[in-house]
């Protein structure tokens, strides 16, 4: 039997798989690597947000009295759901940068996968699905610790967990699309982390209300995924969710994610077609 005879049924099977199952094959490959190396991500994914919760929530927060700015709650309670959203974006910012560039340029994992019947769109689908899984599992671990510390107010935090994943994906999808265009060693990512992720983390409403920012700066905060995710996430956690504002926030996050996916499919196809 020749190589072409073997390859023909394999490609036919690949076409029959469809987008979902083929993307899950990509996810399986990533999980195979991750289950051997997960310890390297524990600090940034779980320990770091818990330390922030302890330091800012219980430490600095002990000097902050409950006011209208904190919805009448202890600062640590006010902070807990926002840190879930912030952590999701920070994890997404890493997972959508160097790993994607590496899979194109250094390890060339995507090129190897593209040699199989799996299409570039399915590779992108697998990458984004894996990022969503990482965000969900890391967020669930954080919520477990936050619950043990007594900082959660009710089951609404489960909705906050879903919102945090959507917020992370609203950041990850466009950045994955951007990472697919890079031919450099990734120097641009330092600029992204320093001038986008960090300011967004500090000034988009996670640690204090956006209303306390100068009026000219507030519109910039309103354009960030963290602000939208934090607004919905806090309302869900505190049981004050109203549907019309929430639907607007969710539509924004979903729209940004969809645009990122569209550009991602285009850029993956162009890069892998070379």
Describe this structure in words.
With 274 residues, this protein is mostly helical. The protein has one domain (19-272). The chain has twelve helices and no strands. Helix 4 crosses helix 11 (225-238).
Summarize the structure.
The protein is built from 12 helices and no strands. The chain is mainly α.
Keywords:
single chain, 274 residues, mainly alpha, globular, disordered N terminus
Distance separating the two termini: 30 Å
Strand content: under 5%
Provide the helix percentage: over 70%
Number of domains as seen in the coordinates = 1
Structural class: mainly alpha
Radius of gyration: 20 Å
Topology overview:
Layout: H1 3-17, H2 19-37, H3 42-59, H4 75-95, H5 98-104, H6 109-114, H7 120-148, H8 157-179, H9 187-203, H10 218-222, H11 225-238, H12 243-272
Helix pairs in contact: 2-7, 3-4, 3-7, 4-7, 4-8, 4-11, 7-8, 7-12, 8-11, 8-12, 11-12
